[in-house]
Specification:
CellSynth/LPSAsmb/PSIAsmb, repeat, TPR_rpt, TPR repeat, 287 residues, single chain
């Protein structure tokens, strides 16, 4: 309870004041920092942990204090400072039990700063030093893949997403890894592999918020491969089911394109005319 933490805080403060030269001071400060944290005073907690790292770097739990300093900036979403403090933890306490946490959050911090190369490096270090059965490996492979994707390293990203699909248990990680795999193949213009990934995504995640986009992208990949009948089926699905008009109008135009390429110009004309009639707000599609 709050009263117990306040009482404990007072005890440790009295100890620090009464025995300023005691070798128990860093331990007392550590407890004070934890008490402040439990009482919701993050700034005081941060100040105490900073004192430990600055004045008692040889203390056996100084790495914990450094981790708390980094956590302070992560919580404040000050990712520039968080990345710096995490690097201090990694460099100054290479045997710390918080090393994997440091690499995980360093990767996250660099990603939020759009420093995708550094994020990639941090996530790769997590994989390098973590146990093969670490439950976070699946998620980290996904985030590693995201860092690679942002650098347009699509082949490497596919490999990382594939690892995530093998190891992750979380449904959202599996969902996004598979969808991002399809986007990688799309960017590589490998329409057959993109189609396979999208078909698997649609079959596996029917309730996903991305399923309409997946149908549209699958239709596009089929269209590019001259599979107009199958493409038309997926374009039609989008028109009938998408809650986003921006997707539906593109799909409606796609239906017209399918008939046009099959040289059924009457049906193509009918489908094209639906665009300005049903979606008048999208003037760019009237052409």
């Amino acid at each position: 309870t709050q009263e117990k933490y306040e009482e404990a805080l007072g005890t440790f403060q009295a100890l620090a004041e009464k025995y300023p030269g005691s070798n128990l001071i860093p331990a007392a400060l550590l407890r004070m920092g934890e008490c402040y944290e439990q009482l919701g005073d993050d700034d005081e907690s941060f100040s105490v942990f900073r004192t430990i790292v600055r004045d008692f770097a040889g203390f056996e739990r100084a790495d914990f204090a450094q981790w708390k300093i980094a956590s302070y900036f992560i919580k404040k979403e000050d990712y520039t400072q968080a990345a710096l403090e995490l690097e201090n933890l990694i460099s100054n306490f290479p045997r710390s039990s918080y090393l994997l946490d440091a690499y995980y959050w360093q990767g996250w911090s660099f990603y939020k700063l759009d420093n995708f190369l550094q994020a990639e490096a941090a996530y790769s270090k997590f994989i390098q030093f973590s146990r093969s059965d670490d439950p976070l490996r699946g998620e980290v492979y996904y985030r590693w893949g995201e860092s690679l994707f942002k650098q347009r390293k699509f082949k490497e990203a596919i490999e990382s997403y594939d690892k995530a699909l093998t190891l992750a248990k979380e449904k959202d990680i599996l969902e996004y890894s598979l969808y991002q795999t399809a986007l990688c193949w799309e960017n590589l213009q490998n329409w057959e592999e993109a189609g396979k990934a999208l078909q698997e995504f649609i079959s596996s995640f029917r309730a996903s918020s991305l399923v309409a986009e997946a149908h549209l992208k699958l239709a596009n990949s089929l269209f590019i491969r001259d599979k107009f009948f199958q493409a038309r089926e997926h374009y039609s699905w989008v028109v009938q089911n998408s809650e986003k008009d921006a997707l539906a109008v593109e799909a409606q135009f796609g239906i017209g394109n399918c008939w046009f390429n099959e040289k059924d110009y009457d049906k193509a004309l009918v489908e094209y005319l639906r665009v300005p009639l049903v979606y008048p707000q999208y003037k760019e599609w009237r052409i």
